[in-house]
Structure formats: C-alpha cells, structure tokens
Amino acid sequence: MTAPRILVIGSDESTGAAAGDVLQRDYFDVRRMPGFFSEHELSSQLQGSDRPALVVEGSGQWARVFPALDREGADRGLVGSDVRVPLLVVSAAITSREKARALDAGVEDVLSRPYGEEELVSRVKAILRRVRPHRGVEIISYKNISLDPRRHLAFVNKKPLRLVLTEFRLLQFFMTHPDFVYGRQHILDMVWGRDRYLDERTVNTYVRRLRNKLEAMSADVEFVAVRGVGYMFL
User: Fold this and answer.
1) Which residues belong to CATH 1.10.10.10 in the chain?
2) For 105-133, what is each residue's pLDDT tens digit?
3) Which pLDDT does position 207 carry in this prediction?
4) Does 53 have pLDDT greater than 80?
5) What topology does CATH give the domain 5-131?
6) Which residue among 1, 48, 108, 132 is least packed, with the fewest CB closer than 10 Å?
C-alpha cells in the first residue's frame, strides 16, 4: 500500500520543517517546499496524479496557501468537497483568534506548539480518515439535493453545488439524519471528530454558510435552530 503523500511547507528550522521530519519518520511520503515560495511553485506541487493527500503549512502563511488550494481545485473543474487538498496548519505562535479564523475559513485543523510527535501523527491520520472517499456508499438523496460520497460531489436540482470539505460532511450528516434535533456538541463530534476541541459556535458558522449556499441554489430544505439545543434539518 502506497504511503499517503504530504506536502510540508516551511523553511529550515521552521515549525513546518520539524513537522516534516516527524511525519517522515512515521513513513509518510513527505515532500517539502520552502517557506519562500511563489504561487506558481505551489500550484505545480498540487497538480497531476501525484498531488498530495494533505498540505501541512508551517511557515505562517496559511492565509496565502488556503486560497491557492481552492483555485487549484476549481481549475481542474471539480465541484464538491474535493475541490481542494485539506490543509493542516502547525504553528509555534498562533493566537486563539487567528486559530478560530483559520478553522472558520475551512482549514482542516490547527496544531500549535508545544505538541507531541504522537499528537501530530494522530491529527494527520485523523484528517486523512475524514477526507477519504466513502467506498461502497451509494448516492444520498434528500428532496432536491443529492450527494455522491465516493466522489465527494454535491448537486441541487442536478446542478453542481460547490462545497468545501467540512461543508460537505456537515450536509451529509444532516441529509442522513433529517427531522431530528441535534445538539451542537453532537454535531461537532460527528462532523469534525471527537479528537477536535472547537467552540460550539463553529457549528453556527458552518450552518450559516451552508444555508446560504443551499438557498442560493433553491434547495428545498430548511435548517431550524432550536434555542439552547442545536439544529434540525427539514
């Protein structure tokens, strides 16, 4: 079985370089790119059949890297949650506010120092499990929305709906659990994973974004906020 390929961004002695060393020792296929890079250099690393399964950003430039991942997916004509490679940010110094901004933007995870080597490896493996295509799962349909979990594609009225990774998983959760109220913490556990420690307001942010996208596509569904509890999908 081929080891997952991971692109690590970070110059020598940086947080990213240290993360790359850890992952390489755990037998991941690690490719490295220095912290001083051009958009062309980043784009070339993301193209082709050997594109990475994950990008680890350790140069303090996640806000620059993340949009490039979205553009790369769009250039390949992809829709759905596979429009971009997932991004893990590792940082020696990141504020809680900046961490929240990264997660709200769609970054898959943020890991700040000090962290143990085992934690880094576990976080990477957890991300790869979450984004791995669901083999053997058929098309999921609810009202005028359909999802293809294997290819990570979403459609409303048979028209492509562009979603980032977390939005896709959130929609999949609600489509397979309609007509029932779920608490925010339960939604966090089911969509983001129990190994993530996020504010429950993260759910509000993603529900709002997903609702806006679905409304723009005239989806025949509704998110009902139940005060003090969570959400119901109708």
Assistant:
1) 162-233
2) 778 888 887 788 888 888 888 888 777 65
3) 94
4) yes
5) Rossmann fold (3.40.50)
6) 1
